[in-house]
Design a protein that fits this description.
By secondary structure, this protein is mainly alpha-helical. The chain is built from 19 helices and 2 strands. The chain has 3 domains: 60 residues, lambda repressor-like DNA-binding domains (434 Repressor (Amino-terminal Domain), Orthogonal Bundle); 117 residues; 168 residues, no CATH class. Helices cover 67% and strands 2% of the residues. A two-stranded antiparallel ribbon has the order 1-2. Helix 6 packs antiparallel against helix 7, helix 7 runs antiparallel to helix 8 and helix 16 packs parallel to helix 19.
Length: 364
């Protein structure tokens, strides 16, 4: 059973607008004791609970989070369902509305609501600024879970960067940078301490998870740099894409790309087909498209759970529904190559292109 006493004391104290010292004086304890309660390092003596609940005007059950404990299983299930609906926007909004209706004060729900507004309302994000800012400030002010607070910071940075690009918004990149500078360096990430688990428990699972996260992060940073910066030539972009594809094929030598599946299908082979097309190298554009289509078919045919067998990931279980249970690679790729990649009608009329589309439509 999870105890929410410290988190609730901190939330109630901040809602009341009082300091730790004021609460400590009322209870005749040290403010260090209150600080330890709020950090979850210790709990108040049981005899203090009536005084604390009376001070805040709540029941002991509410102070302890009894009702929250009884709802935790349902909330966890709803959160997992929501997180698995990345691509179905309509269902995701409905799932989020259900979460907000049942658990409006839960910070896990609030941070998801905040992210949903930022990413799904990107084009008219300025209309939702006050709501996004209010949610962000509430999480930073009242949430005691550092992971949620860091997540909210990342989302809010994205909002500020978007607003900085809108003329006369009153927001500049410096506003985002102030928050960026408060984030911890990657060198302190838990993934870099993964070997402690292997050393003490003999399990490779944490190492496997850390490797996948770090590989994905490396790809995000590199691709964001060489794909978006104007300083790199098209030939260099193609070359580095090919080399990164070779790197991933070496790392995932069994052909199971784990959490990198979508990146390999769309961001590697898919995007490289666009680069080759822009260069006028239609043969390689079609080669990349065909490989992307083959991998999309393979991904959709995977069972939900598959065991990886490349040397670095031997025995690691990949759950393809863990984040995007509604993702259908064939449908996503077909929509992309027909509507989003910018291919000309002449190129799409080529027999090889129509053959690739036919493969996707046949397997859909």
């Amino acid at each position: 059973m999870t105890i929410y006493l410290g988190e609730n004391i901190k939330r109630l104290r901040r809602e009341k607008g009082i300091t730790q010292e004021t609460l400590a004086d009322y209870l005749s304890v040290s403010f260090q004791s209150v600080s330890r309660w709020e950090r979850g390092e210790s709990y108040p003596d049981i005899t203090l609970l009536p005084s604390i609940s009376n001070f805040f005007g709540v029941s002991i059950d509410e102070l302890m989070g009894v009702n929250r404990n009884s709802d935790e299983a349902e909330l966890t299930e709803l959160l997992e369902e929501y997180d698995g609906l990345r691509w179905d926007v309509e269902r995701k909004w409905k799932a989020l509305d259900t979460l907000r209706e049942k658990y409006p004060s839960d910070f896990r729900v609030q941070v998801r609501y905040m992210a949903k507004f930022i990413f799904d309302c990107w084009k008219d994000i300025d209309k939702h600024g006050s709501k996004i800012t209010a949610m962000y400030e509430n999480i930073q002010r009242s949430c005691t879970d550092d992971a949620i607070r860091m997540e909210a910071k990342q989302y809010y940075i994205g909002y500020l960067e978007r607003m900085a690009c809108i003329e006369n918004s009153g927001i500049t990149f410096e506003d985002a940078d102030k928050i960026i500078q408060t984030l911890p360096s990657v060198r302190y990430a838990r993934e870099l301490n993964c070997f402690s688990y292997q050393y003490h428990t003999g399990s490779d699972e944490k190492v496997h998870e850390a490797l996948e996260v770090l590989i994905h992060a490396l790809f995000d940073v590199m691709s964001g740099w060489y794909l978006q910066s104007k300083k790199f030539s098209l030939d260099y972009q193609i070359e580095i894409q090919e080399k990164f594809i070779n790197f991933l094929n070496f790392i995932y030598s069994d052909g199971n790309y784990g959490i990198m599946w979508k990146a390999v299908i769309s961001s590697c082979y898919g995007v490289n087909s666009v680069f080759y097309y822009r260069k006028g190298d239609y043969d390689n554009a079609l080669r990349s498209l065909r490989k992307s289509a083959e991998l999309a078919v393979k991904f959709d045919s995977l069972d939900r759970f598959s065991t990886m067998h490349s040397p670095l990931f031997e025995g690691h279980i990949f759950d393809k529904d863990a984040k995007d249970r509604d993702f259908i690679a064939i449908k996503h790729l077909r929509d992309s190559i027909l509507n989003d990649y910018g291919f000309s009608d002449e190129f799409k009329d080529a027999p090889e292109f129509r053959e690739i589309v036919a493969i996707l439509e046949e397997k859909a």
